[in-house]
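Shift notes (night). Ran N-acetyl-alpha-D-glucosaminyl L-malate synthase BshA while the centrifuge was going.
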Amino acid sequence: MKIGITCYPTYGGSGVVATELGIELAARGHDIHFITSSQPFRLTGRESNIHFHEVSVSNYPLFEYPPYDLALATRMAEVAEFYSLDLLHVHYAIPHSVSALLARQMLVARGRTLPFITTLHGTDITLVGLDRSYLPITKFAIEQSDGVTSISSYLRDRTREAFNVSSEIEVIRNFVNCDVYSPDAAKIAAMRPRFAASEEKLLAHLSNFRPVKRVTDVVEVFARVSHAMPARLMLIGDGPDRSAAEYLAHRLGVRDRIHFLGKQENVNDLLPLADLMIMPSEMESFGLAALEAMACGVPAIATRVGGVPELIDDQINGLLFPIGDVEAMATAAIDLLHDEPRLSTMAAAARKTAQDRFCASRIIPLYEDYYQRVIDRT
Ligand code: GMT
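Came back to this:
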C-alpha cells in the first residue's frame, strides 16, 4: 500500500507511535510518505520505502496566526495525487483530521478517492478536544473520518462519552519493537557505570515534562528512595516542568543524585539500564513510556489512570497507585528494590507482557488489516 502519515514530529507519544508505525510498515514493503512540519525525530532519513514531505507555512504580515492546517491540507492533497496514495493515516485528531478532511474533499472534486483514518492518542480527546473552541470541529472530523482507531479501550469509551460520536472506533493498542527495546546484558554492563555505581539502584522517568506527567512526584518518590538506599535517577526528556523538578530536587537535597538528561534520541539504550521506571501521571490514555521500559525488562511504578491498567497488571508486571500517593509509591519502590527475586520476577513479567501482547510483530498486522478494510469499503 501507499500510505501518507501525518503526526506531530517532535517529542511526544503520538509522534513516536506514528513514526515507529511508518518504519515497521516500510520494513514490510509498504511505501510510506510522512507529511509533517519537520522530519519526525526518530527517522534518520536513510530508511528505504520512506519519503518525507515537509509542510512549510508561508507567513505574511497580515496573518496574525500562520494557517498551518491549510498548508497541511494542501500538501496532503498534492502528495496523495503525485504519489497515488491509497490512504492517509493521521495521528492526533487536532488539527490533522480536519486537514485530512479538506484534502479528501479536494481529491473528490478531481474525481479521485482519498480515505483517511484518524488515530486518537489521548490529549486530543481528554484535554484539547474538550475545549469548546475545538470540540465541534474535532467531533465533526472524527465523524467524517473513513476509519477511527484509538490506542486503548479506555480512550475509545471516553471519546464516545465525551464527544457523543456514533462512529465505530477500532482499538489498536500501542506497540514496541521488542528487538530494539530489549535488555542487552553486554550493553547494560558497558553503559550503566556512567549513571550508577554497582551498589546503587537506578530509577528512570521518561516524558515531555508537561504538568499531566507530575514530574515533581517522581522527584518526591526518588528523594524517599534515596534516603533509604543508595540510588540515582535518570530523568529523560524536557518540557515546562523541568525547572520545577530541578528546584524541588535541590530543595530535597537530591539534585546531585539525579541525571537530568534532556531530550534523548536513543531511549532504547538508556531504559534497560534502570531497575525501575516511575510514571506517576495524572492521566495516560496508554502510557507508551512504560511499555518501552517494560520491553527493556524494567517494570513501572505507575498511577491507576486511563488506559494504564490495560498495560500494567498490578503486582504482576508492575505496581499501580492512586494519583499523588508518593508515600505509597516510595514505600513500594523501596520494598521492591530490596527484594531482588521479586524485582527480577516482575522485570521478566514486564518483558513478557511487551512481547506477548504489544510487540510490533503482533500489532502492525492489525493496522494492515484495518487499512485494507477501510480501503475496501470506500
Ligand atoms: O501525553 C503525552 O505525552 C503526549 C501525548 C501525545 O499524543 O503525544 O501522549 C498520548 O499519546 C501517547 C501515545 O499514544 C500515549 O502513550 C499517552 O498515554 C497519551 N498521553 C495522555 O493520554 C496524557
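The pocket of GMT is lined by residues 12-14, 17, 92, 121-123, 126, 151, 174, 208, 212, 283-288, 306 (CB under 6 Å). The first strand starts at residue 2 and ends at 6.
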